[in-house]
Specification:
Blueprint lengths: L1 E3 L11 H9 L5 H8 L2 E3 L10 E6 L33 H15 E11 L4 H9 L5 E9 L14 E8 L5 E3 L5 H4 L7 E3 L17 H11 L5 E4 L6 H8 L3 E6 L2 H16 L2 H20 L1
Parallel strand pairs: 1-7, 2-10, 3-4, 3-9, 5-8, 9-10
Antiparallel strand pairs: 4-6, 5-6
Helix pairs in contact: 3-4, 6-7, 7-8
Length: 294
């Protein structure tokens, strides 16, 4: 296992090398943008062959008749794009089996994968992994976050499970990252606490993982220059983070509108200093909630 220590200094996304990377990628030209968009394919996960990825990060559909346009979500549903492909409950086990086959067939021999899961069908994912020949479950992490829906009759579930699987007996792992997860206090990779980074007046995908969460995972489980792959990429957020962190990427989804969201996210982060805007929006929400409590 490759185990490298990152700097123990107290750094953030806006300090040292990370800031330099951000500055280097600001104001992307049209030709470079088109090349990044070409890495997003409208493609079924079963059609991918021999990608040879170092790391796969994927967030499969929930299998709960989810659309992302439910009235109990704090979002403008008019901004949510159409075309999200949900998996039916009765076919969920088969779909996860197909996803595991895709992962196995498209990883390098020493590659690894991180599979996100909500609580509803986590048991199905766990059982399928344990009985799958060719991938080994190495551990599980939990992402806790600020929950979007308004829940009045039962507790809200604001925890994602992240299954870590490997194809071989060697893998990449760094025990420090540059997010607050490792820089503030003792790092604990079993529980990741990252708030969602909401976007204002932009096309939205029904599901999207926040920048800092993906940054944390990529810095722990990959190296610069590695190939990152997501066969169910949705908004394409993994491509945005991979590019800024100097990883290569390739990804796909059945929903062509996901590529539209990906283009807007590239423009947001590369041309409009999206990392700074993320912080400003979080502070605005925090101040707004504090004001409402008075």
């Amino acid at each position: 296992m490759e185990n490298k220590n990152l700097s123990q200094e107290n750094i953030s996304l806006f300090d040292l090398d990370i800031k330099d990377k951000r500055d280097n990628f600001s104001r992307i030209d049209k030709n470079s943008l088109e090349k990044l968009l070409d890495k997003y394919f409208i493609k079924d996960m079963n059609d991918w062959k021999d990608v040879k990825a170092d790391l796969i990060v994927t967030d499969p559909p929930f299998g709960i008749e989810f659309s992302g346009k439910n009235g109990n979500y704090n979002r403008n549903v008019k901004n949510v794009v159409d075309g999200y492909v949900e998996w039916k409950v009765l076919e969920y086990g088969e779909k996860i089996q197909n996803l595991l086959e895709c992962i196995k067939n498209n990883l390098k021999n020493n590659g690894q994968a991180l599979i996100f899961s909500g609580w509803n069908n986590s048991n199905i994912i766990h059982d399928r992994i344990m009985n799958f020949d060719g991938l080994t479950l190495r551990g599980k992490m939990y992402w806790t976050y600020n929950f979007a829906p308004v829940c009045r009759v039962k507790p809200s579930h604001n925890v994602y499970e992240i299954y870590w699987v490997t194809k071989g007996e060697k893998w990449t792992y760094h025990n420090r990252c540059s997010t607050h997860h490792c820089q503030n206090g003792e790092p604990n990779l079993s529980t990741l606490n990252f708030k969602r980074d909401y976007k204002i007046n932009m096309p939205k995908y029904p599901t999207r993982l926040p920048f800092n969460l993906l940054q944390c995972l990529l810095e722990h489980f990959s190296n610069e220059g590695d190939l990152i792959f997501d066969p169910l990429c949705g908004s394409g957020m993994i491509g945005v983070v991979s590019y800024i962190l100097q990883r290569d990427f390739i990804m796909g989804d059945l929903n062509k509108n996901g590529k539209v969201v990906f283009q807007h996210l590239l423009d947001f982060y590369l041309n409009n200093d999206g990392l700074t805007q993320d912080i400003e929006i979080r502070m605005w929400w925090k101040n707004k909630k504090n004001y409402e409590k008075k």
